[in-house]
Write a structure and sequence with these properties.
Order of helices and strands of chain B: HHEEHEEHEHHEEHHHEHEEEHH
Largest sheet of chain B: 8 strands, mixed
Number of helices of chain A: 24
Number of strands of chain A: 4
Oligomer: heterodimer
CATH topology of chain B: Alkaline Phosphatase, subunit A
Helix content of chain A: 55-70%
Shape of chain B: globular
Helix content of chain B: 25-40%
Largest sheet of chain A: 2 strands, antiparallel
Strand order of the largest sheet of chain A: 1-2
Number of strands of chain B: 11
Chain lengths: 443, 400
């Protein structure tokens, strides 16, 4: 029975404790984490009625193309697409608040951020949640190669990083029209998704990968299965390519799969992913020994992500040191939502808007940053205080602040926080102080 | 009734925070604090070739393909600057600036970075160092610490502080407040909550001080930040102008804009790039108007992490490149010309056969701003702001 380890499990691996969850976890904190890996990422009820990405693309991008000459109708489609995004953000937030397998939810959010598709690009506004449900969610417990393939092949990614429009200059289509390569996806695939910026690739590899991926595109409304992945041989660059010194023989669509095989097997990918996981679960400055063990687990288990998670669950670096990670606005607001059992997602999403981390709107393909320095600044801290006070006022009297402190951070609360929460001038102040306490601000 | 204001609370409480902000190892220069400097960071890689357009280069039309702009003269076309370069029509309001010598574009500029990652390139742009990840503080913050650490001479606009302004010198911040602000008594309790937490205490204390100063200076500014992105940017720029104008306010501000990563649909006179440039045009003109009389002593510099490929890519856009353009503006600049050595667009002249070859190290331009405009000593700038760059002198003749 360890309340301390329960608090670590709930904060580091989960999304913050719901009421009475700490006591439940305390019997077997590590088991609580591992059992969720065994449970599989089931279809959550809240997410069950989300239309497919293909349907969403038809309703948004497809409709906009069809209505080319009708500005009013186009305006209406754009409004509808924004409403889809608002609804999807609400679903994502609600799911994170009510879930009983928060560890899986954290993994989904982690990998969704790793393979960012941001709704800041208007074309993908309607498909960011379907993308997460189709490409990320089913694969977070399996092999990285499977997740990689699902993410890169998904129409949302092909649109977001421009690959759907990329044309091999020597392809049938490329020779006929003045169209050619777009290396956006190829570069981010190497830099962000697999090898990492120092992973040992050069401009030649970016170009080669861009040529390899030509033809990976999306079926148009008039074609079969519109809005799904479609390989277009006529825009695919012919000939053999050389990627990272390896020859990729001409094979059309299969070249891209061969390239993903090569990248997923590469030791730089193991290192890059290990570093990101260690930073997310242990410390902003990832402990080198932990990164080594994670990378080894990846290499020795054919890129099985569950083997890496097992290393994290066994790692003293994760359990035995003070909680040093500062919660991002997303982590902070979801933890508060869970602690206070908020049922209406709107104020939660509103809080995320105010603190600058609306789900699905990361500023760049690199996703949201994962270090304290990126989130803790003078203005950001004041906004957290304004937010905490507003939450405290809304919650009001029904809850005793000292109970909330015990139920959420429990043994991690420092004496000063206990003293101030206990003596808070009003319940609203007390609740706000719990949310602002050093332990609640961290994970 | 005696009410403790936030400001009084801060005077009593945050001396330690301020002291911790002093660099210690350098003597304070006599800073020229009657002058202002605004840095605009154009995130995503602005296409310099479509901004300050080399229409007189014999290879221009050929290499740029569909990205090439119509030659000057036609209706809606770019304005000619000097017979060789022209200004994108979305920057039309800056043409009079150029004609009156207030605008000095500098072509073929780059940081020492020669790879093509946005994130690493912005890191170097903001740390001012030769290596990625070498520092957690920005060159502008280091420069501010030379100008006297006690007064908050630096100002960050928006919700987060950009890396270029992070560091030991305390800075002021402003962003639109859309929540009711928590009351002073609660904020005092939170300060007490962080007695043993240096990270949170430091940021929170600085935030309180910054907000107190901002409230005094901005007062009645309409701070509703909701609305269009353009309206939000306008609110930020107006706040910058008002704060820089206030006698005890900051003197150096950083603004950021996005939308420059034009891989597809970049366009020529219209398109994604034109929209981003339109925003820059608004930012610069609103800034000048908001600064009022202080404009006469202000210098603005707009910089980006890298330029873009010379050739059009396969999707009507351009990919990450190397040499780009920087825009220096203000009544004190020696403008009305395009500075920088033009390397040309001939295939043999390009960097790695694809990018504009950089001929000016951006740090030389930054050094000129810090020494010639803000009056910092060259030696301190070499040693402390851009360490390891003593061989590189400030660009000459940028200021009149």
């Amino acid at each position: 029975m360890s309340l301390h380890d329960a608090a670590v499990a709930a904060a580091r691996f989960g999304l913050g404790a719901r009421s009475n969850e700490l006591r439940m976890i305390a019997g077997d904190p590590r088991g609580w984490v591992t059992r969720q890996f065994g449970a599989g990422v089931g279809g959550a009820e809240i997410l069950a009625d989300v239309p497919s990405g293909a349907d969403r693309l038809r309703e948004t991008v497809g409709a906009l193309q069809a209505l080319r000459d009708d500005p009013d109708a186009r305006q209406q489609v754009r409004r509808m697409a924004r409403q889809m995004l608002t609804d999807d953000i609400g679903r994502r937030v609600s799911q994170a608040i009510v879930t009983e397998t928060p560890v899986l939810e954290r993994l989904v959010q982690f990998w969704s951020n790793h393979f960012t598709v941001s709704a800041l690009r208007p074309q993908v506004v309607g498909v960011v949640l379907p993308y997460e449900l189709e490409a990320i969610r089913p694969h977070v417990l399996g092999r990285f190669r499977t997740l990689l393939g699902a993410a890169i092949r998904h129409p949302a990614m092909l649109l977001y990083l421009d690959n759907a429009q990329s044309v091999g200059p020597n392809s049938v289509f490329g020779r006929r029209r003045e169209r050619g390569l777009n290396e956006n996806l190829a570069r981010e695939l190497l830099e962000l998704h697999t090898l990492g910026v120092d992973g040992g690739y050069g401009q030649d590899d970016v170009g080669a990968l861009a040529r390899i991926l030509t033809g990976w595109s999306i079926a148009r409304p008039a074609e079969a299965n519109p809005g799904t992945f479609r390989f277009r041989p006529f825009v695919h660059e012919p000939g053999d390519k050389t990627l990272l010194g390896q020859r990729i023989a001409e094979a059309g669509e299969a070249e891209g799969e061969a390239a993903l095989d090569l990248l997923a097997r590469h030791p730089s990918t193991a290192r890059h992913l290990a570093g990101k996981l260690a930073r997310h679960f242990a410390d902003d400055d990832p402990p080198v020994a932990l990164v080594d063990r994670l990378a080894a687990a990846y290499r020795e288990n054919d890129g099985d992500l569950s083997a890496m998670y097992a290393v994290l669950v066994d790692a003293p670096e994760v359990w035995d040191r003070p909680l040093t990670k500062v919660r991002t606005p997303n982590d902070l607001v979801l933890a508060a939502g869970r602690a206070l059992d908020v049922r209406d997602p709107e104020p939660v999403a509103g809080s995320l808007y105010l603190m600058g981390q609306v789900p699905f709107t990361a500023p760049s393909p690199a996703g949201w940053p994962d270090r304290a320095g990126d989130w803790i600044g003078p203005e950001a801290m004041l906004q957290r205080a304004d937010w905490a006070m507003a939450v405290g006022r809304r919650v009001g009297r029904g809850l005793r602040p000292t109970d909330l402190l015990e139920r959420t951070v429990g043994p991690m609360a420092d004496p000063q926080a206990r003293f101030l929460v206990d003596g808070a001038p009003s319940p609203a102040d007390g609740i706000a102080l719990v949310l602002m306490s050093p332990a609640f601000q961290r994970r | 009734m005696l009410k403790t204001t936030r400001r009084q609370l801060l005077r009593a409480g945050s001396l330690a925070t301020l002291m911790a902000g002093l660099p210690g190892r350098v003597a304070f220069a006599q800073a020229a604090t009657d002058r202002c400097f605004v840095l605009i960071v154009l995130r995503g890689g602005m296409d310099g070739l479509s901004t300050v357009v080399p229409h007189g280069d014999p290879d221009y039309r050929q290499v740029r393909g569909t990205l090439a702009l119509t030659a000057p003269g036609a209706g809606g076309a770019m304005a000619d600057l000097d017979g060789y370069f022209g200004l994108h029509p979305a920057l039309a309001d800056l043409v009079p600036w150029y004609r009156s010598g207030m605008l000095l574009p500098i072509q073929a500029v780059a940081t020492p970075y020669r790879e093509r990652s946005h994130f690493d390139a912005q890191d170097l742009l903001e740390t001012g160092l030769g290596q990625v990840g070498a520092s957690d503080d920005g060159w502008l913050n280091r420069a501010l610490s030379l100008m006297g650490g006690q007064r908050r001479l630096g100002l960050a606009l928006g919700q987060t502080t950009p890396l270029v302004l992070r560091g030991s010198a305390p800075i002021a911040t402003w962003s639109p407040e859309v929540l009711p602000t928590a009351d002073d008594a609660f904020l005092e309790l939170v300060s007490a909550l962080y007695a043993d937490d240096p990270l949170l205490a430091g940021a929170f204390g600085q935030g309180l001080e910054a907000r107190a100063m901002t409230e005094m200076a901005v007062g009645d500014l309409d701070s509703d930040g909701r609305g269009s992105a353009q309206a939000q940017q306008r609110a930020l720029v107006e706040a910058a102008g008002r704060l820089l104008r206030s006698p005890d306010g900051p003197r150096v501000a950083v603004l950021e804009t996005g939308g420059w990563d034009t891989h597809a649909g970049q366009g020529a006179e219209d398109g994604r790039l034109a929209r981003a440039l339109n925003g820059l045009n608004q930012t610069l003109t609103v800034l000048r108007d908001s600064l009022g009389s202080v404009w006469s002593t202000t210098v603005v510099l707009a910089v980006t992490e890298f330029g873009r490929t010379v050739a059009v890519n396969g999707t009507g856009g351009s990919d990450h490149g190397t040499g780009g353009v920087a825009l220096l503006a203000g009544p004190g600049v020696s403008g009305g010309r395009v500075a920088g050595d033009w390397p040309g667009l001939a295939p043999s002249a390009l960097h790695e056969g694809r990018d504009l070859r950089p001929t000016t190290d951006l740090r030389a331009v930054l050094k000129a701003v810090l020494t010639d405009h803000l009056g910092l000593p060259r030696g301190d700038v070499d040693r402390y702001v851009f360490p390891g760059s003593a061989h590189l002198g400030p660009s000459r003749g940028l200021f009149g």
